[in-house]
Amino acid sequence: MLPVIDTHQHLWDLDRFHLSWLQRAPTLRRSFLPDDYRAAIAPAAQSGAAPGAAAGAAIVQSVFVEADVDAPEWLAEAEHVLALAASGEGAPIAGIVAAIRPEGGDFRPHLDRLAALGPVIKGVRRVLHTEPEGLGETPRFTENVRALADYGFSFDLCLRPSELGTALHLANACPNVAFILDHCGNPLIAAGPKSPETEAWRRRIQQIAQLGNVCCKISGIVNQAAPGHAAAENLRPYVEHCIACFGWNRVLFGSDWPVCTTAASLADWLAVLRAIVAGEDAENQRQLFSATAARVYRLPPLAAHPS
Asked: 4-296 architecture in CATH?
């Protein structure tokens, strides 16, 4: 079984940080700590095999992605997770995507503070799907994102499907910045594969994929499916469209744990994605599950692992 890098792991400790958005997500309104993640990725938890069969490979590295903590806790979150990673308590965190606010006037000083934390900080993210549409296309936001190239930081794009034009705008305006489109651009899977919303999403994904500085994270889509419909046959059209547009060397797996647990366990989502790509050759699967992640987020080499 190929090793897996999870490029979209969250943690939050409600005794330390405030996450106002959890008021709208009651099933997630508790702390999710390193021990919880370890349990979710343990080999015994990996599904997709018949009872008694060999367990699937555990996730061997992860990238922590900021959890949209309240201001002014952004830097403290990055410092806390960095300490977890360094101590081994946050295993297997190999990289951090920290919170940032490119619309703010103190952007460069905040980048300087993040850069001072060291090379485990790989990139930054600003959640846009909870903000007024168009924020990511304002002049200050665009100019500040362009500055990420000076620090070697990537930018994770977290957008409503109606905002995918913002991804096009930023990737065009900031050609020296590496962008990662989270959650396949959040297609409205519950609307159905033939819906006008899905057709619009398909066109935008094709346009975005033409820009070589954007990769696509195959994550988060289980949460967009109608309840009880997070199965391979329902998610396959969206996964296959992203792979067809971006190619195997620009797609990367993410669990979106623990948010994924509102629809499926991490193990079940991983099993669904493995089923979708089961007919592909080993090299293509390696790109999806580890190689692209290692390259895009500049992660340390994986230890040798049996195939």
From this structure: Alpha-Beta Barrel (3.20)
